[in-house]
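Hi V.,

Quick status before I head out on leave. The structure for the redesign project is tokenized and pasted below; the design run finished overnight.
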């Protein structure tokens, strides 16, 4: 069987790693892939957003199953395109991907379906948005409606800060089309978790909950990044929370998507805030999260390939057994380039330590040059996942290995999973 993985980051490496671990005979091709995935299969020089190039590749290679990693090709309609040619493809259609690509669509769907989430209103005129900010008072949240590479959200602690965000998004053209519509949203408090679920549009197979760490600095300080690390499981994401998430979040959302004529198939990612009133949706994503995937999949004991293949073929998941996860813990520590999340330098030679048992180094922003030297190529360079009996144990092993990776300007956080470590330390 031949699988095409679209994308080339740590998430796609983790998907390739899990599939290869399940079936050594599987032929894996990644577009564009990365040097880590190349150890498990081969890379094709086709960009993740080159839909025509990917179509030609799938046809030429007689691909049996295509798995789409990032949101950009989903937003470009890769799934609609592949399906029209009868290619089995894992992911949502362009219309269904709006659950992520349009915050307005997602919010209206949730509010109509009674899915717990912060109340919000959408505005295109700055004056109206400013009036809403005054009505709600600070803290208040201002969001650009479209895809803004994770930078379209301002949690404003004052009215002035909210006004600045509105001016930047609606009047300053900071996010292009993505910012021509803003949501002004009620502020929520609580810890955040990420819950992934595989779905055929109706049936739901949830995965173990994870928590990511978006800030650059230890203790969750400093500017936001694409993610500096993640861990799983999360003790406060109890079985009761998982039940509520299934009954009140996943099922009504999928029903509303079917009713809206755009059933969601693939991987639905619920970003939840565990508020004093129960879990509430902060956002949905239409794909696996990065770097959460790098801890969730190494803990997954049941097959990923089987449900993915069923979903991609349009088969039902009715009667599928729940997904099984190890009772161990996983922590992934991102090793980022100097300057990240600002301007980074690329092309620095990377030296990796000898492989270690229960430690997996996923490639995120690396290239191999003509001489075979591994070099940095992007902000997040590598992410080091370690397993352990506890999160504290996994954290220690992850950090130890990550610190032995050498390249100019390498930076990492040594505290991924700190909330969980503190919880355990405080436990009787
Ligand atoms: P989003 O891109 O919608 O996930 O938002 C990015 C981050 O902003 C989230 O991970 C939260 O930490 C924060 N955030 C978003 N919406 C809210 C809200 N209504 N209340 C408090 N924090 C929020
Ligand atoms: N880890 C957050 C995301 O993938 O969007």
């Amino acid at each position: 069987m031949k699988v095409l993985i679209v994308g080339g980051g740590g998430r796609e490496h983790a998907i390739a790693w899990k599939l290869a671990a399940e079936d050594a005979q599987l032929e894996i091709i990644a577009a564009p892939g990365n040097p880590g995935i190349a150890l498990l299969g081969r890379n094709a020089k086709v960009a993740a957003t080159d839909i025509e190039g990917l179509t030609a590749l799938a046809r030429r290679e007689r691909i049996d199953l295509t798995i789409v990693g990032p949101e950009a090709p989903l937003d470009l309609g890769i799934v609609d395109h592949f399906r029209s040619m009868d290619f089995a493809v894992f992911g949502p259609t362009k219309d269904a991907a709006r659950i992520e690509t349009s915050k307005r669509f997602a919010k209206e769907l949730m509010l109509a379906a009674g899915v717990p989430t912060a109340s919000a209103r959408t505005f295109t005129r700055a004056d109206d948005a400013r009036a809403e900010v005054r009505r709600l008072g600070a803290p208040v949240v201002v969001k650009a409606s479209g895809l803004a590479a994770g930078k379209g959200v301002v949690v404003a602690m004052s009215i002035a800060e909210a006004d600045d965000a509105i001016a930047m998004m609606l009047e300053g053209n900071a996010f292009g089309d993505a910012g021509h519509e803003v949501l002004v949203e009620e502020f929520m408090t609580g810890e955040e978790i990420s819950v992934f679920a595989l779905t055929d549009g109706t049936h739901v197979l949830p995965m173990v909950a994870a928590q990511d760490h978006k800030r650059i600095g230890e203790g969750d300080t400093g500017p936001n990044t694409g993610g500096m690390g993640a861990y799983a499981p999360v003790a406060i994401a109890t079985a009761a929370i998982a039940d509520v998430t299934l009954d009140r979040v996943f099922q009504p959302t999928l029903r509303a998507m079917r009713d809206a004529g755009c059933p969601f198939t693939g991987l639905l990612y619920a970003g939840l805030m565990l508020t004093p009133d129960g879990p509430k949706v902060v956002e949905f994503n239409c794909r696996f999260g990065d770097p959460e995937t790098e801890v969730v999949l190494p803990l997954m004991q049941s097959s990923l390939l089987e449900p993915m293949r069923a979903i991609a073929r349009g088969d039902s998941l009715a009667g599928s057994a729940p997904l099984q996860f190890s009772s161990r813990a996983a922590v992934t520590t991102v090793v980022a380039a100097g300057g990240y999340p600002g301007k980074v330098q690329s092309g620095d030679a990377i030296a990796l330590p000898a492989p270690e048992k229960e430690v997996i180094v996923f490639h995120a922003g690396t290239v191999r040059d003509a001489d075979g030297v591994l070099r940095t190529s992007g902000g997040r360079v590598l992410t080091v996942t370690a397993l352990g009996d506890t999160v504290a144990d996994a954290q220690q092993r992850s950090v130890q290995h990550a610190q032995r990776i050498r390249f100019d300007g390498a930076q990492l956080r040594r505290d991924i999973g700190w909330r969980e470590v503190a919880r355990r330390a405080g436990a009787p």
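Above is the designed sequence. Residues 212, 227, 285, 289-290, 292 surround glycine (ligand 2) (CB under 6 Å).

G. will cover questions while I'm gone.

Best,
W.
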